[in-house]
Amino acid sequence: MAKQVVTTICFVLFHCIISYCAFMSSCSVHSSTKNSIPEIARYFGTKGRYEEVNTYLIDDILAINNSLVTLPSSTCHEIHLTAIIRHGTRFPTAKNIQKMRDFYDLVVRNATDNLNCLSEIKSKWHMWYKDEMDGRLVEKGREDHRHLAQRLIRWFPSLLTEDNVRQGRVKLITSSKHRCVNSTIAFREGLMTGLRIDDKVELEPAVNDALMRYFDQCERFVKEVENNKSALEEVKRFSEGPEMKRVMEKMADRLKVPYTSVTDDSVAAAFYLCSYEFTILKVNSPWCQLFDEVDAQVMEYAVDLKQYWKRSYGHDINSKSSCILFHDLFYRLDQVVTHINSDVPVSEAITVQVGHAETLIPLLSLLDLFKDDVPLESTNFATQQNRIFRSGRIVPYTANLLVVLYKCPEGIRMGVRLNEKSLTLPGFTDPVPMYEEVKKRYSALLGGCDQETVCKMNYS
Ligand SMILES: *[C@@H]1O[C@H](CO)[C@@H](O)[C@H](O)[C@H]1NC(C)=O
Ligand SMILES: *[C@@H]1O[C@H](CO)[C@@H](O)[C@H](O)[C@H]1NC(C)=O
Ligand SMILES: *[C@@H]1O[C@H](CO)[C@@H](O)[C@H](O)[C@H]1NC(C)=O
Ligand SMILES: *[C@@H]1O[C@H](CO)[C@@H](O)[C@H](O)[C@H]1NC(C)=O
């Protein structure tokens, strides 16, 4: 009996090894990974998973890593947290779903399945994305926010307390987009679970697009950048340049289709298929086998270039469009400081604001963060290999900017973290400077940067 079991196990094991080897060699592009994480996952840019930025979360999603954070001296204690958070993992937009469908059809109809990953796509994969999924939050996206809330409780145990929730000292603000509203609701669930509050507590998110989608309401940004093709000229040049051309040709060679059949939309669609299958379903899909590492770096650069010109340092108005959110932040912090200085209890211990990658990037740029010495351009892909402006590092799903105020014997200090890692503000050496020094550093913005003025068309 026992012998038979052992034999069976050996037999099964043998077959597993054989199939595994077959899988390993399934595509000649590059060898497959041992695990379910695509080798190119760190190049997904704004379509990237939060866990790729903090890999210790892969083993324990509720872990916090203290070695990534610098605290002020132990004589200080936290008095306020503002968290500005991107929504969680979502479905592709309807526009991108169409591109994915077109590319899938090309592979099924026209590609020659000499590569096993192609036969895998043709025989096992089906186009399951539907137009109505259009940008909605997926279950993983809800988990992203529930887990972030639970980690924030561990990071800030004296602020995220049951008492603060019950006394209305926690505020939730969100963009009106369904993926943001649903992220905020998931965040609240995580908060309630983490604090073991199981009765109904009044904690309704307030929708505020003037703050969380300020970019729609800044006329100058809309006219000069959003609706202006020539504002993204560098992005277009790169998509027609030699690096992207090479990615398209390699893709056509792999599919054995004429070069004219593969466009920049096709390679973008293939890259989406790889990234969405991974972030939504947690699988390393055969689509990922259509890219090698250099291809993925080119795709990443195309995304970063677009973010740079549309949301960041490419045009001055991009960051200036966030003036309203910048002022809202400092107004909030000032109020806390006023309360502390006059010995009145702080009325807002935690402010959570849920928005978009497009909410965070301009604000970070306004603060002069992640600014390379040389601009990102269509012609400098090669020399920008070590750039600090990397959207996948800065704004993966559930990206979060955490601004913390501390009360110390010498006064109020301010700490900033992005994605649960301390940041030192440009111009400072101390990662937790005095709040008044921070205000001095940004005094020009605090004294100006008026939304109405900067967003007017005739302003210069
Ligand atoms: C915390 O982060 C550091 C630096 O990235 C890393 O070396 C360490 O392994 C992490 N700690 C844990 C517990 O994963
Ligand atoms: C938001 O979440 C609710 C409940 O979880 C769900 O029924 C609804 O479809 C979600 N909306 C979107 C747009 O994802
Ligand atoms: C469009 O962008 C270009 C390049 O930045 C700029 O020169 C031009 O003035 C913009 N057009 C409008 C209508 O703002
Ligand atoms: C795919 O092949 C068909 C013929 O089988 C052809 O008509 C069509 O143009 C091809 N599509 C592309 C995008 O190359």
UniProtKB/TrEMBL annotation:
What's this protein's name? Multiple inositol polyphosphate phosphatase 1
The family annotation for this protein states:
Belongs to the histidine acid phosphatase family. MINPP1 subfamily.
Q: Name one GO cellular component term.
A: plasma membrane
User: EC number(s) for this protein?
Assistant: 3.1.3.62, 3.1.3.80
Recorded source organism is: Phoxinus phoxinus (Eurasian minnow)
Sorted alphabetically, the keyword list is: Cell membrane, Disulfide bond, Glycoprotein, Hydrolase, Membrane, Signal
The superkingdom listed in its UniProt entry is Eukaryota
- Which is a Pfam family this sequence falls into? His_Phos_2
Disulphide linkage map:
C76-C408, C274-C288
Under the GO molecular function aspect, what terms does this record hold? acid phosphatase activity; bisphosphoglycerate 3-phosphatase activity; inositol phosphate phosphatase activity
Task: Give the reactions, separated by semicolons, that this protein catalyses.
Answer: 1D-myo-inositol 1,4,5,6-tetrakisphosphate + H2O = 1D-myo-inositol 1,4,5-trisphosphate + phosphate; 1D-myo-inositol hexakisphosphate + H2O = 1D-myo-inositol 1,2,3,5,6-pentakisphosphate + phosphate; 1D-myo-inositol 1,2,5,6-tetrakisphosphate + H2O = 1D-myo-inositol 1,2,6-trisphosphate + phosphate; (2R)-2,3-bisphosphoglycerate + H2O = (2R)-2-phosphoglycerate + phosphate
Compartments it resides in: Cell membrane
The signal peptide stretch is: 1-21
Among Gene3D superfamilies, the record links this protein to: Phosphoglycerate mutase-like
